[in-house]
């Protein structure tokens, strides 16, 4: 229970369905103020109090579990390493894979619980093969199956997503009707441990000597000309347009985007939007929700709030090759490609490289 | 897990707070509808004042101090703050060389935090006095610390008995040492009043903290007993109601309830200690029989009668607490929380325990409503709970 409206209603629904529910708030920082301050995210003292009050109202026991060390090792360190290497990670997937549906689930199972229920918007249902399938939420605008695409069959079999069949509006109304004071609490955004949403500033401070560079050239992709300087490649992500601070406009007057990040030399390459087009993805570290597909014509989603791209997916040797039938723009290594068959999540993999060529 | 409503809760957390005794409820409620500010000059004010002063005399008699030495506060934390900051500032004002504060490493946060604040914000030098493996203050180390430069010591604070592991401190030796150098001694006795014999005048301490809700009285009321001759600078300024040391309208009903509880607790201290320590001994024996590798922490002889503090190797105290709670058995990890994030107990760390040993501990504390059935319930539950908690930390 993060202290937000979704997990509060999920807990209330699980309890009402007759489950023996215990509320758990995850303390993800030893020193809460050091991660988030203000009312924007998870893991403030205020959030833990909100979660506790929601549990009181629902009438379930409530505890705070200290997962701060595991969170730091598995999520925060990984986030820093990935940015330092010039990639763009999604820490929410990582947290679901390693913390919420691993460290928390394992401890819960050992303590005698059967499942972890969360306020994620996704649907679980039994499939024809007897396995548990995960599908997109009814509310496509809130669907969070993307960040759950890392869950395997064991994890899914011990998960409950009581909100998957409901729209966010209805969840808020239900929270109000249930007397939960978090009913109109704003949604959390961004990354919970980056207090002000300033990734680059946070990384600059935390990476310190681990940063691969503290500056370098911003280079034009077509001419090789140096257009400006920057203060660290970790401040950039592929497809980024804002914050490049290039003095001279492009010859054609069109905006320029980050095309490539080279952490060793510290070079950030920029160019026009069409150069961001990607039609092939190579991805590694696949995680499958159920049976591993050999070849699949389905769709992929490449970022948390991104659209679907029709794709042909081929697997083998721990790698996944994805041919996009609808081109995608600004895809960065490190992002997760989540693979769908209709509304069903098949699995996910971490993008290692992208190209524009066809096979 | 089963969280069905338990008809009878097994309450083993009396050191956190203990139920009010009927005499205190009666004394408190008797005055709830009375009008009259004890500081008012009219008849209603005088009637309220009389209740307060009689309560003060009752407490003075129970603790063997003079009534004028009882300064009512809004509880133990305020009394500790008043003692530490008030005495430090007064001693500083009298002689600016007095910059050192000596406190044991196992004090409650109500003592440690004001002292650390004085260190960080007021230029005090804080010396933490070490304890032995049983949590008894190391008197030789204390002597050495004082004798480094006795004239620079502003005050010394040693709790009468530790709230987590229950170890009773050698207050006599501490006072003998401090008084030979003219250093005032404060003691936090919130766990000790009513559970061990306390005689303020005979003890020689200069200031003593007690609080209502730990001895069968109401929450939100306590006192600092402070020797008449000792200068204390005020923290809360206003009407100067309490000896000009503490301001704020006096809470007549709460003070009446508090005094009734103190009187009763002190009167029945010996029989309470005998009954409760026998229960405690059976609790410890039963737990050790169920979990042979559990370890009892704290001093076995110099110990609060109701305290049982044990480490369960391979368990996280938090898991164990939750599993017991689900069975209606309530205890404490004894550790301080910030935002509910459990930190390893500073008391156990000061006693030389490792981080994971400290995290594997639980405190069971018995009190005036504890029964044999409570002990039996814990003894029956602890084995399976420990087994499960161990599985969860693998």
Automatic annotation (TrEMBL), chain A:
Keywords: ATP-binding, Cytoplasm, Disulfide bond, Methyltransferase, Nucleotide-binding, RNA-binding, Transferase, tRNA processing, tRNA-binding
Broad EC category: transferase
Site positions for Interaction with tRNA: 120, 335
Classification via Pfam families: tRNA_Me_trans, tRNA_Me_trans_C, tRNA_Me_trans_M
Disulfide-linked positions: 95-192
GO cellular component: cytoplasm
Subcellular localization, as worded in the UniProt entry: Cytoplasm
Sequence segments annotated as region (Interaction with tRNA): 142-144
CDD domains, A to Z: MnmA_TRMU-like (cd01998)
Active site: 95, 192
Catalytic reaction annotation: S-sulfanyl-L-cysteinyl-[protein] + uridine(34) in tRNA + AH2 + ATP = 2-thiouridine(34) in tRNA + L-cysteinyl-[protein] + A + AMP + diphosphate + H(+)
Coiled coil: none
Annotated binding of ATP, by residue: 26, 119
Gene Ontology terms, MF aspect: ATP binding; methyltransferase activity; tRNA binding; tRNA-uridine 2-sulfurtransferase activity
Predominant place of localization: cytoplasm
Residues covered by the tRNA-specific 2-thiouridylase MnmA-like C-terminal domain: 280-351
Matching Gene3D superfamilies: Adenine nucleotide alpha hydrolases-like domains (2.30.30.280), HUPs (3.40.50.620), Translation factors (2.40.30.10)
One BP term from GO: methylation
EC identifiers of the protein: 2.8.1.13
Every tRNA-specific 2-thiouridylase MnmA-like central domain range: 207-271
Record-linked HAMAP family: tRNA_thiouridyl_MnmA (MF_00144)
Role this protein plays: Catalyzes the 2-thiolation of uridine at the wobble position (U34) of tRNA, leading to the formation of s(2)U34.
Family assignment from sequence similarity: Belongs to the MnmA/TRMU family.
Name used for this protein in its record: tRNA-specific 2-thiouridylase MnmA
Source taxonomy: Bacteria, Bacillati, Actinomycetota, Actinomycetes, Propionibacteriales
TrEMBL record, chain B:
GO molecular function: cysteine desulfurase activity; iron-sulfur cluster binding; metal ion binding
Swiss-Prot/TrEMBL catalytic activity: (sulfur carrier)-H + L-cysteine = (sulfur carrier)-SH + L-alanine
Entry's EC annotation: 2.8.1.7
Stored Pfam families: Aminotran_5
Database matches in PROSITE patterns: AA_TRANSFER_CLASS_5
Aminotransferase class V domain location: 10-378
UniProt entry keywords in alphabetical sequence: Iron, Iron-sulfur, Metal-binding, Pyridoxal phosphate, Transferase
Needed co-factor(s): pyridoxal 5'-phosphate
Coiled-coil features, chain-numbered ranges: none
Family statement drawn from the similarity comment of this UniProt entry: Belongs to the class-V pyridoxal-phosphate-dependent aminotransferase family. NifS/IscS subfamily.
Classification via PANTHER family: CYSTEINE DESULFURASE, CYSTEINE DESULFURYLASE FAMILY MEMBER
Identification of the protein by name: cysteine desulfurase
Source organism per UniProt: Nocardioides szechwanensis
């Amino acid at each position: 229970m993060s202290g937000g409206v979704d997990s509060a209603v999920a807990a209330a629904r699980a309890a009402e369905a007759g489950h023996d529910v215990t509320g758990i708030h995850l303390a993800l920082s030893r020193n809460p103020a050091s991660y988030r301050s203000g009312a924007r995210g998870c893991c403030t003292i205020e959030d833990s109090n909100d979660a506790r009050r929601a549990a009181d109202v629902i009438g379930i026991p409530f505890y705070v579990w200290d997962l701060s060390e595991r969170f730091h090792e598995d999520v925060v360190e990984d986030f820093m390493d990935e940015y330092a290497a010039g990639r763009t990670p999604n820490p929410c997937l990582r947290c679901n894979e390693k913390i919420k549906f691993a460290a928390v689930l394992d401890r819960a199972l050992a303590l005698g619980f059967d499942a972890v229920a969360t306020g994620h918007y996704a649907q679980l249902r039994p499939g024809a093969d007897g396995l548990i399938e995960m599908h997109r939420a009814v509310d496509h605008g809130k669907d969070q199956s993307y960040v759950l695409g890392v869950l395997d069959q064991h994890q899914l079999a011990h998960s409950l997503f009581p909100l998957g069949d409901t729209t966010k509006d209805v969840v808020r109304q239900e929270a109000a009707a249930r007397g939960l004071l978090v009913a109109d609490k704003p949604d959390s955004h961004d990354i919970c441990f980056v207090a002000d949403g300033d990734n680059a500033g946070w990384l600059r401070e935390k990476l310190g000597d681990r940063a691969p560079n503290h500056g370098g050239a911003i280079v034009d992709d077509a001419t090789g000309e140096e257009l400006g300087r920057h203060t660290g490649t970790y401040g950039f992500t592929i497809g980024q347009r804002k914050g490049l601070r290039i003095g001279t406009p492009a010859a054609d007057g069109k905006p320029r985007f980050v095309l490539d990040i080279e952490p060793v030399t510290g070079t950030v390459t920029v160019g026009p939007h069409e150069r961001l087009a990607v039609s092939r993805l190579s991805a590694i570290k696949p995680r499958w929700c159920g049976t591993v597909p050999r070849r699949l014509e389905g769709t992929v989603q490449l970022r948390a709030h991104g659209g679907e791209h029709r794709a042909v997916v081929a697997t083998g040797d721990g790698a996944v090759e994805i041919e996009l039938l609808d081109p995608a723009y600004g895809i960065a290594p490190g992002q997760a490609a989540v693979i769908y068959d209709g509304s069903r999540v098949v699995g996910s993999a971490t993008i290692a490289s992208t190209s524009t060529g066809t096979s | 897990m089963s969280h069905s409503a338990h008809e009878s809760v097994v309450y083993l957390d009396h050191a956190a707070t203990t139920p009010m005794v009927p005499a205190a409820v009666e004394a408190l409620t008797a005055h709830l509808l009375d009008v009259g500010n004890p500081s008012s000059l009219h008849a209603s004010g005088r009637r309220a004042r009389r209740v307060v002063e009689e309560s003060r005399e009752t407490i003075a008699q129970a603790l063997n101090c003079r009534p004028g030495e009882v300064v009512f506060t809004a509880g133990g934390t305020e009394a500790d703050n008043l003692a530490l900051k008030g005495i430090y500032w007064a001693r500083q004002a009298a002689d600016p060389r007095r910059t050192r504060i000596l406190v044991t490493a196992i004090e409650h946060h109500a003592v440690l935090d004001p002292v650390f604040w004085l260190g960080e914000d007021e230029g005090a030098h804080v010396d933490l006095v070490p304890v032995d493996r049983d949590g008894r203050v190391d008197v030789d180390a204390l002597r050495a610390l004082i004798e480094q430069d006795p004239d620079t010591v502003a005050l010394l604070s040693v709790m009468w008995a530790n709230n987590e592991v229950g170890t009773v401190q050698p207050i006599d030796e501490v006072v003998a040492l401090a008084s030979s150098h003219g250093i005032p001694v404060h003691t936090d006795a919130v766990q000790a009043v009513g559970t061990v014999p306390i005689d303020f005048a005979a003890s020689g301490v200069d200031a003593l903290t007690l609080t209502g809700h730990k001895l069968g009285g109401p929450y939100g009321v306590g006192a600092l007993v402070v020797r008449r001759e000792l200068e204390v600078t005020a923290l809360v300024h206003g009407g100067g109601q309490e000896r000009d040391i503490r301001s704020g309208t006096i809470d007549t009903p709460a003070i009446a309830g508090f005094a009734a509880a103190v009187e009763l607790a002190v009167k029945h201290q010996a029989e309470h200690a005998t009954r409760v320590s026998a229960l405690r001994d059976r609790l410890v024996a039963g737990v050790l029989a169920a979990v042979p590798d559990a370890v009892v922490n704290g001093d076995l002889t110099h110990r609060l009668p109701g305290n049982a503090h044990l480490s369960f190797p391979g368990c996280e105290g938090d898991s164990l607490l939750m599993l017991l709670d689900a069975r209606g058995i309530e205890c404490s990890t004894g550790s301080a929380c910030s935002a509910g994030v459990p930190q390893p107990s500073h008391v156990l760390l000061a006693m030389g325990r490792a981080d994971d040993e400290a995290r594997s501990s639980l405190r069971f504390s018995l009190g005036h409503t504890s029964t044999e059935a409570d002990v039996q319930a814990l003894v029956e539950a602890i084995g399976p709970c420990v087994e499960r908690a161990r599985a969860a930390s693998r």
